[in-house]
Amino acid sequence: MHRAPVAVRQARESDAAALAVLWDEFRLQEPLTGLAGATPDVPERVRSRIAESDRAVAEGGSPSYRLLVAFVDGEPVGFASVSVVERGLLAQTCAVLVDVVHVSDRHRKRGVGTMLLREAVAMADEIGASDVVVNTPTRGRDVNRFYARLGFAPLVVRRSSPVGALRRKLGVEPRPDVTGELTPVQRSMRRRALLTPKRSSVRL
Q1: What CA–CA distances, in Å, run from 114 to 6, 81, 131, 143, 191?
Q2: Which of 77, 105, 176, 180 is the most buried (most CB within 10 A)?
Q3: Of 80, 79, 56, 48, whose CA–CA distance to 188 is shortest?
Q4: What is the pLDDT of residues 113-168, one digit of tens each?
């Protein structure tokens, strides 16, 4: 039986509606902590992420995030969310983190996930990253087997807690809400400003 080839490219604004459908499929299949019950404005988040990547390229840099979409016969059948992350104080190079990979049910076992991961490897080569790291659901047996066959090994156990619940456990008073009315793009710019080291004004 002939299989149509899988094509992968970066998401565009015109993909927002299709990505919203794929995202809903993912949420139903992978009820991860912090995602279950969440109803993000996926089209708006797609647009803000694309704008952020385009802005980085326009400024002469390399985007730190890519949203990849896989197509079969022109139909969107899967996506991957890929970020560049720092490995921490003891690591000398950054890594590429694949935090979500989703393929629609009727297009699984056709190489779609593999093609999405190839793009993550290409991004790692592009920026000189030492590793590709993937997030996997703890109870996703088939998913974990897929990654194990590709050579991914367990590295750390990452636990998550809602900020409100953790604040109560630690007895921390909430700070005044200064970001609640910001748009996703404004929140992203605020995060980047906080993470970017400030240049010293002192000249030696």
Answers
A1: 10, 14, 16, 12, 32
A2: 77
A3: 48
A4: 999 999 999 999 988 888 999 988 777 788 889 999 999 998 888 888 888 899 89
Residue pair 82/119 in contact by the 8 Å Cβ criterion: yes
Report yes or no: 80 and 98 within 8 Å, Cβ to Cβ: yes
Tokens of 87: 């490995």
Q: How far apart are CA 19 and CA 78, in angstroms?
A: 8
Find the CATH number of the domain harbouring 77.
Answer: 3.40.630.30
Q: What is the pTM of this model?
A: 0.73
Contact 87, 94 (CB under 8 A): yes
* Contact call for residues 128 and 95 (beta carbons, < 8 A): no
Structural domain range at position 135: 6-160
Q: Are 6 and 72 in contact (CB under 8 A)?
A: yes
Domain-embedded: residue 181: no
Q: Determine if residue 45 is left, alpha or beta; phi over 0 gives left, psi from -120 to 50 gives alpha, anything else beta.
A: alpha
What is the number of other CB atoms lying within 10 angstroms of the CB of residue 119? 19
- Rounded Cα distance between 42 and 20, Å, is 5
Structural domain count, the chain:
1
CA distance 27 to 34: 11
pLDDT tens digits along 17-57: 888 889 888 888 765 544 444 445 666 777 777 777 777 66
